[in-house]
Structure formats: C-alpha cells, structure tokens
Amino acid sequence: MSFIQFFGSALQVTPHFHSLVPDGVFVPEEGGVRFEPLPPPTQGEVERLLKVVRHRVLRLLEKRGALPAQGPEDALQAYQAHSLQQRLRWTEVDVRPPPRKQPRCAVLEGFSLHANTHLHANDRLGLERLCRYGARGALALERLSRAEDGRIAYRMKRPLPDGTTHLLFTGLELLRRVASLVPPPRANLTRFHGVFAPGAKLRPFLVPQAAGAGETSVALEAEARKEPKKERTPRVDWAELLRKTFDFDVLACERGGGRRSVLAYVKQASGVREILEHQGLPMAGARLAPERGPHKAAWC
C-alpha cells in the first residue's frame, strides 16, 4: 500500500512515496492463505533496491522527454520549479556535518530510501498512526499564524539549516506555493499492490468485507428464504430520453410514417463530410452570435 506525496514539511515540492509492506509473503492454501514471515532486509539489499529505483526513474523521465529539463511549460510547472530552486538554496547553505548513517537507509544522487520502520502485528494503533501520517495533507492549519507585519507565518516541523523556524508569505505567495503542491488531475494518491490490489485473487481472504455483522446476517437470512431479487431497470436509450424531454420522436419518419433504425454511428469528420455532400446539405457549422452583455433594464 503506497501513499503518493508531492510536498515536504516546508511546503516545497518533494515527490516521494510512503509504502506499507508486509514483512513476509502470503501463501495460498486450501480454504484460505498462510502468512510466512521473512527476515528484515539487509543494508546491501536496500542499497541495491535504491540503485534500481534511481535507474528506472531516470530512464522513464528520459523516455518522456523530461530530461534534460527544457524549462517550465505552464504556470504550475513554474511554481514547482520555483519551489525546487528554493529547496536547492537551502541545501547550498547547509554547513552541518552529514547525518549519522542509519541502518537500512540509503542515499544516492538525490534519491533516498528509508526501510528501518517496523511495527508489531498487534500494534494496531501504531499502524493507524502510520497510515494517517502517509495520508496527511500538505498544509497543517495549526502551524499558520499572522505575523506582526500582516504576512502569513508558517511554522515548520524542524528549523532550516540557517536556523529559520517560520516561513513568511503574502497571500498571493502562499497561494502560489500551495498551487505547486496540487497533484495531477484524476490521479489516485493511494495505491494498492500485490495481494492487496483490487483484482488480486487472495484479496478477499485478507481484506474485511464492507458489510457489517448485521448486514451479513440479513443477507444470509434472505438467501435462506430465497427471496427473489429485484430486477434492474433497463437503461433508457438516447431516443427515448429525447422524446421524454422535448416531446420529439427522432426515430419517427414524417414522410412514410414508419420508424427509423440506427445503422451506424459516424464519428470521423471525413465520414460526416461525405454524408453531408451526398445529401446536398451545408457542411459549414452554424455561425455563433457575438457575446452580448445583459440589458441595463435587467439590473434595475
């Protein structure tokens, strides 16, 4: 289970993933599944995995034409580039000694992998807290305050390398910073993999069903009584919808009194043009009237 995030604690663009991975494998058996625990990853395995991730990410960016960077193409990319440049300036002034190397953690050319967090199987509160951390929003409202000069102050989770504890924004600057953190449209920020994926065969054995205990008992009783299921109402076609809405039957033939039938749906412009030419109908679209403001009397 992965949470996709685009932000850091200082409201900067920092794409990263929070992934929850079982410390073992699920083995199918008769009537269910069996969990086989595995030992924790070694430092060498974590470093090798990071090299694979770095190689695949750079190859994907190069394939999509994002490398080398050609500059921002729209306002959102400009805001994201500004946020990344701000983060690079903070990195340049970092004169502190490098952090102590932690086990099962690796850093490689801007990529990092932290795999040293482990929860016991019975630590349900810890698991909930970890899920909430991965699914949290980019902006913490309790960290916002009004500075003396009227600007908006945002208290960071930890001080910057130069000792800064608060970021100051005008209203427009804060909107620009937050706009850079907006995820792409129609993108799922929570992904399920492996046996937890929506189409996995073993998922019903691992994920609780949506129905509660009361609903399950009612369903079982209904199945025992073999109650007839309600038939689904057929979907109304487009011609019937037009008839009900505008009282106009598009399939009724006025000349012969018969009924028209749909032979094909023409979607290509070339096919539509040929049909109009054969029928001797104009091919130019209707001219749109110019926009006009409301009459002054309407405002009285």
In words, what does this structure look like?
With 300 residues, this protein is an alpha+beta fold. The chain is built from eight helices and ten strands. The longest helix is centred in the N-terminal third of the chain and has 21 residues, at 43-63. It starts with a strand and ends in a 21-residue tail after the last helix. Mean pLDDT is 80; it is low at 90-97 and 296-300.
Q: What overall geometry do the principal axes of the alpha carbons give? A: extended
Strand order of the largest sheet: 2-1-10
SSE order = EEEEHHEEHEEEHEHHHH
User: On the 0-100 scale, what is the average pLDDT?
Assistant: 80
Defining key terms:
single chain, about 300 residues, alpha+beta, three-stranded antiparallel sheet, 8 helices, 10 strands, extended
Spell out the blueprint of helices and strands.
Elements: E1 2-7, E2 13-19, E3 24-29, E4 32-37, H1 43-63, H2 75-92, E5 105-108, E6 111-114, H3 124-134, E7 144-146, E8 152-155, E9 166-169, H4 171-179, E10 190-191, H5 203-206, H6 213-225, H7 238-246, H8 269-279
Antiparallel strand pairs: 1-2, 1-10, 3-4, 5-6, 7-8, 8-9
Question: Can you describe this structure in just a few lines?
Answer:
The protein is extended. With 300 residues, the chain is α+β, with helices and mostly antiparallel strands. The chain is built from eight helices and ten strands.
